[in-house]
Design brief:
This protein has about 150 residues and is mostly helical. The protein has one domain. The chain has helices at about 1-35, 40-65, 70-75, 85-110, 115-135. Bound molecules: protoporphyrin IX containing FE (2 copies). One protoporphyrin IX containing FE binds near residues 10, 55 and 63.
């Protein structure tokens, strides 16, 4: 079960990244062309929101049921001294939750705005910052020695 959730969480990263990148690129193009907010713009933002919320739910399950989250905090003395143990127990969850909160706030704010320009700008700012945080906190093998490609 945990192994399955781990594979799901690990491969799902590409979908989360895909939709957030699409929403950000679309917002940049929308702002520079001055065109009105399109149906596809809303869909990119909505899919970015949904995939990141699903990633959150699976992440929480891994955190509380798997070996590398709560288990480390409760059972491993001095875990803060190990960059790998600290990464999953503290850093990954904290920064990813902040990023997902930003996506959620950005989506909600944009939904309530009338002007296309302001909608694009809101998505660009909130999804843009979230994208940087998410990219930085994925355990990519080239950033952190303990991540895997899948
Ligand atoms: C820990 C689990 C979750 C939390 C804490 C959470 C929290 C939230 C919050 C705070 C909002 C913003 C409401 C607003 O102001 O518009 C929201 C919206 C939304 N969430 Fe989640 N969510 C979770 C899981 C999920 C899951 C699993 C899905 C989909 C499978 C999902 C799909 C959505 C959608 C579609 C919206 C936007 C609705 C709209 O305004 O159009 N969420 N969620
Ligand atoms: C967009 C958000 C997120 C992305 C893209 C993401 C991505 C990843 C990736 C790529 C891994 C590494 C898997 C591996 O190399 O084996 C991982 C592991 C993990 N993530 Fe996330 N994550 C996100 C959010 C979260 C959140 C919000 C939580 C907690 C609530 C969480 C909890 C975990 C845990 C506990 C692990 C370690 C799993 C294990 O090996 O037992 N993640 N995540």
């Amino acid at each position: 079960m945990i192994t399955g959730l781990n594979h799901l969480h690990s491969s799902f990263r590409y979908l989360v990244l895909l939709f957030i990148v699409l929403a950000v690129v679309d917002a940049i193009m929308g702002l520079s062309s001055g065109k009105s907010y399109k149906k596809s713009s809303k869909l990119f933002a909505l899919f970015g929101l949904i995939t990141s919320h699903i990633q959150l739910v699976v992440g929480l399950a891994l955190y509380f049921m798997g070996a590398k989250g709560m288990n480390v905090i409760m059972n491993v003395e001095g875990f803060m001294k190990s960059s790998e143990l600290r990464f999953y127990a503290i850093e990954h969850i904290t920064m990813m939750i902040i990023a997902i909160v930003l996506v959620t706030i950005g989506y909600s704010k944009a939904k309530r705005i009338e002007s296309s320009k302001k909608k694009y700008r809101t998505i660009l700012i909130f999804y843009g910052i979230a994208l940087v945080l998410i990219f930085a906190m994925i355990p990519w093998p080239f950033l952190r020695p303990f991540g895997s490609w899948m």
